[in-house]
Amino acid sequence: MVFTNESSGQRQTLNFASDFVAWTKRMQPMIGVNADVVFVGYGVVAPEYQWDDFKGVASRARSLWC
Asked: What share of the chain is helix, strand, coil (3-state, %, to 5)?
């Protein structure tokens, strides 16, 4: 996976398992995504603790990463 900083053009290559883990329920040999990425913490929603990592995140047409 390669992240590209659009403002600087700097590219960073990430290796599966050591740098990131990703999965999908779609049974395909390869999945491509070209979208803005939004980091949302651990992806925790715990209303009993007034905690929601997704609250206020504009997620339309973006890939959310936990």
From this structure: 5, 30, 65
Residues with Cβ within 8 Å of residue 23, at least 6 apart in sequence: none
Of 46, 50, 48, 14, the residue nearest 37 (C-alpha): 14
DSSP code at position 41: T
DSSP 8-state secondary structure symbol assigned to residue 53:
T
Q: Over its length of 66 residues, how does the chain's per-residue pLDDT go in tens digits? A: 787 777 898 998 988 889 888 777 878 887 777 888 777 888 899 999 999 988 888 777 777 777
Of the candidates 25, 44, 26, 37, the one whose C-alpha atom is nearest the C-alpha of residue 63 is 37
Residue 46, number of CB atoms within 10 A of its CB:
9
